[in-house]
Design the sequence.
């Protein structure tokens, strides 16, 4: 059984802002599952939530598999919030087929 910690117990530098897009929700869910912290806001920093380099690498693989992309391993270090990561990952997603 995974222990779940409330985000409210952490000393976060940003106030909670809920995910609004489908991609932000998916990323926040993946982060929460990996970190055992709920809820995850779009401006929460991965490393403030308890993430480290090993978890970042593991989470990046989960994201790549879940979304069918291949992002650089440094992506999470350069875009450590859900909002920033959604912007980077969104650019890697295939465009919807016209038709």
Sequence:
């Amino acid at each position: 059984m995974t222990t779940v910690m409330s985000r409210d117990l952490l000393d976060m530098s940003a106030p909670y802002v809920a995910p609004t897009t489908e991609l932000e929700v998916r990323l926040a869910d993946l982060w929460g599952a990996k970190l055992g912290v709920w809820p995850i806001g779009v401006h929460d920093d991965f490393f403030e939530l308890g993430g480290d380099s090993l978890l970042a690498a593991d989470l990046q693989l989960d994201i790549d598999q879940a979304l069918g992309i291949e992002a650089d391993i440094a992506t999470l270090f350069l875009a450590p919030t859900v909002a920033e990561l959604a912007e980077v990952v969104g650019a890697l997603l295939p465009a919807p087929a016209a038709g």
